[in-house]
Design a protein that fits this description.
It is a single chain. The chain has a single domain, classed as Four Helix Bundle (Hemerythrin (Met), subunit A). Helix 1 runs parallel beside helix 5 and helix 3 packs antiparallel against helix 4. The protein starts with about 30 loop residues before the first helix and ends with a helix. By secondary structure, the protein is mainly α. The radius of gyration is 25 Å and the shape is elongated.
């Protein structure tokens, strides 16, 4: 008669408690994925304003442009300023990965000043347009769409300011650049969105 087999005790992992660790893709960082999903939601928000704009242009009898015309040349200069800030932002991010502290500081300050210049020119443009949001439906759409973008520029400037503080404190480098990369992605989105707004509002 065969001897009864004695069950072998199963080894337990004493180092892991609770639910298993969530699976995470190695290609996309969670912070980067978060800002990309946020940008998608912002595109939807802009889409609602663009829908109102195209309704005014195509369906409504309200004339376009509002007032006596829009300062296309000024808006084009502003577009060049904002695109330049996107270049300096990229330079700042590359400098962080190369641990070039001086280039980082110059880049983030230049980007911040270019963003402030854009916002100043846009506010000055509002003051000299000759019409207000209550003037007509087309004027409301103009201020709504350009003002929405201006609000995003302001948020971007706040993020750049916080990044600048971390840079000047020496907290950004090759191993700690995610706090700069995320605001950079947002800033590039703001710059790209202005090209769409400029082309739609001022050129078409």
């Amino acid at each position: 008669m065969e001897a009864a087999s004695i069950p072998t005790p199963v080894a337990h992992d004493d180092h892991h408690h609770g639910p298993p660790i969530a699976n995470q893709s190695s290609r996309v960082n969670s912070e980067v994925l978060g800002i990309l999903l946020f940008i998608i939601s912002e595109i939807m928000l802009f889409g609602a304003f663009f829908a109102a704009y195209f309704f005014i242009r195509v369906v409504s009898a309200d004339g376009w442009p509002p007032g006596e015309g829009l300062p296309v040349a000024v808006a084009a200069i502003n577009a060049a300023i904002l695109l330049s800030s996107s270049v300096t932002m990229h330079w700042t991010d590359v400098s962080a990965k190369r641990d070039n502290q001086r280039a980082m500081r110059v880049g983030i300050v230049t980007t911040f000043l270019l963003g402030c210049t854009f916002l100043f020119i846009q506010i000055n443009e509002y003051l000299h347009l000759g019409f207000a949001p209550k003037t007509s439906a087309s004027a409301s759409v103009f201020f709504g769409l350009t003002g929405l973008h201006g609000a995003h520029v302001l948020i971007g400037l706040l993020l750049l300011w916080m990044s600048a503080v971390r840079i000047f404190k020496g907290k950004v480098g090759p191993d700690h650049h995610r706090g700069l990369e995320i605001p950079g992605i947002y800033w590039h989105f703001v710059d790209a969105m202005w090209i769409v707004v400029f082309t739609t509002i001022y050129v078409l």
